[in-house]
Amino acid sequence: MITLTRSHVKRIRAVFSRGLGSAARNPRTTVQFTLAAGELRLAVCSPDFALTYTMPYDLPPQSFAIPLDALRQCEGTKNEPLQFEPQESAVLVRWTDGGIPQQARFETVEDLELPPRPENMVSNPPALRGALEAASETAADSTARYTLTCLRLRGDGQIAATDGRQLLIQRGFTFPWEGEVLVPASRVYGCKDVRCGEPLNIGRTDEWVTITSGPWTIQLKIEKEGRFPNVDDMIPAPHSAQATIQLGDADRPFLTDAVKRLPSLDPINDPITVDLNGEVIVRARGVDGAPPTELVLRNSQLVGEPMRLSSNRQYLARAAQLSFQQIGFRSPEVPACCQDERRTYLWALLEKSGIVPPEEDSIRIESTATAGERQVAAPKPVKQVAAPKDEPVTEKTQEATEDPLQGLPITLNVGLSRKVGLPNYGSVGASCHVQVELPPSGGETVEDFRQRVRWAFAACRSAVDEELSQQRTDVFTPTNNGSPRRSASPGQVRAIRTIAAQNSVNLAAELRTRFGVEDPEALSLQDASDFIDWLKAAEPEPALR
User: Strands 30-36 and 39-46: what pairing?
Assistant: First the structure.
């Protein structure tokens, strides 16, 4: 009899589900229990991926396999005993739930045939796990031409991944082979338990690459038929950037968080304008003619020539999230590039037609010296220093008022815009803009001024939410054939938001990528159900002890 705890089994099963992805929902997916040499090994396997958890356990040798879903049925959050008792052609599982005895019987299935382990393994620092996680986040979810769902591991210690729009190359590791191998990307590297801080050993056989760290063994099937693009030719020469953002430490978390909240008229490309023209500004166009919203990075600076360009905001945020200190631009037409001693990150820019020029009534949100704080300033006249050669300056150079509270009247312009998707690729939007004449500051403090701005934003937000609610009262949306199509239920919407928050899933990005919508309310009933299944399969887990 094998005895574990329900919480321990829950954590192990969650890691298995993360590694297997959609295969974890297949009722035929099994988990193998093996007792041998003073160890208990639990393992799962798919055609291109295998994962094994090993722990000390002193019992006579034996093995059996049951459906992976059996673990889900009897796991729990408490350290209550969970007993697995092998019987003839079945396994009897006993546990206690809230003091009430429970038991279930699961038919055994054929034992898994796990890949062999290599004889030669070399050690790498724990940083290899983070590199594999970052590379897997860069790889494509699906592809038709190149093998973009794979990572390229090269014998000189380089890891490369791309989805055709972004490219991440990382160097400085040790792999015991010559040439290169392609292996599937995996979300398992992001699991808390796999992030155990221990060194990683890596090796390969003719068919599989094996990685071990702590109690975990990850095995990846080598892709021999696919073709990886020649990404090395895409890396620009050092110091070739015409304009470089020196990104301040305090601005990285500010940019990562704030850029996702800027208004967007295109949920597919998520465009923003990077304006390097005396200040480092990230700008996005509002909805229905509303003035743009600007993020002013006060702790960052431009080195080189002024430039204005359009980019997908997700890639700019990722460059900040990867802690790059410099972001280089050669021109508005070629990929942006971040480089340090061990990494290179590139992404394709968008068409110049999407560039949003500065406007005098732009809403400005400024970073401060302390990460996570924001200063919302009254709209200021734009100080135009220079412009790209192909974009002549039309605004007059004006000096911005240094302090809006020095005894002068203030005109405060505040606006808020939102656009949400609907089924069948429709959308609705609403915007609200308020102009408030504030009296001379007198004895008013900066905090008093900020409180006025917060009140104005709260009023705009309430009006926008009310208008969107009125525009989206229909529960049914016609489909292409004229029959009604049920929208996601309120319960499904709550479940999606809750599970996504618990699993640290970028909900907006996943909805845009998978369904082309901004909010879970825009999903159909079936799409919402499928998305909940995917979120559950990707659920995180607390650290194993």
Answer: antiparallel
Instruction: Give residue-wise pLDDT tens across range 295-329.
Output: 999 999 999 999 999 999 999 999 999 999 999 99
Please tell me the number of Cα atoms within 13 Å of 220 on its side-chain side.
28
Identity at 257, one-letter amino acid code: D
Q: What would be the CATH architecture of the domain defined by 122-234?
A: Roll (3.10)
HEC string of 1-18 equals: CEEEEHHHHHHHHHHHHH
- Give tens-digit pLDDT for 181-220: 999 999 999 888 888 788 999 999 999 999 999 999 999 9
* The CA-based dihedral angle spanning residues 369, 370, 376, 380, taken in that order and rounded to the nearest 10 degrees: 0
Closest by Cα among 207, 138, 205, 211 to 170: 138
Which pLDDT does position 156 carry in this prediction?
Answer: 95
Instruction: Look at the alpha carbons of 499, 504, 508, 510 in this order and tell me if their dihedral is positive or negative.
Output: negative
Based on the number of CB atoms within 10 Å of its own CB, is 187 exposed (0-12), middle (13-18) or buried (19 or more)?
middle
Structure confidence at residue 419 (pLDDT): 60
Residue ranges of the chain with pLDDT lower than 50? 371-408, 423-425, 473-484, 541-545
Domain boundaries in the chain? Answer: 2-107, 122-234, 248-312+325-330+352-399, 476-537
Token code pair at residue 310: 């359009």
The class (CATH top level) of 2-107 is alpha beta
- In terms of pTM, does the model score above 0.70? no
